[in-house]
Design a protein that fits this description.
Elements lengths: L4 H17 L1 H25 L1 H4 L6 H13 L9
Helix pairs in contact: 1-2
């Protein structure tokens, strides 16, 4: 009887072997990892600082701010 873990181990061994042998695969993997790090840093640092930093003194203050954000109507601009 073949173990169910065996195909998964073989899959990861094949992937590892491909990256070990192929220079192009390693280069593309490095580029992808670098882009993920850059985008994560950019998104965390510049686009979402308000949502990632706690700015509330208490849970009640936080719930009031969330309700205020959800209930305010957005500004709608009409261009003619």
């Amino acid at each position: 009887m073949i173990s169910k873990k065996r195909p998964i181990i073989l899959l990861f061994a094949n992937i590892y072997d491909t990256f070990r042998r192929s220079r192009l695969a390693r280069l593309l993997l490095i580029i992808v990892l670098f882009k993920i790090l850059i985008f994560y840093g950019f998104l965390k640092g510049f686009l979402y600082p308000r949502f990632l930093k706690p700015k509330w003194d208490s849970p009640e203050h936080r719930s009031d701010e969330v309700l205020k954000d959800m209930l305010n109507k957005p500004n709608i601009y009409f261009y003619e």
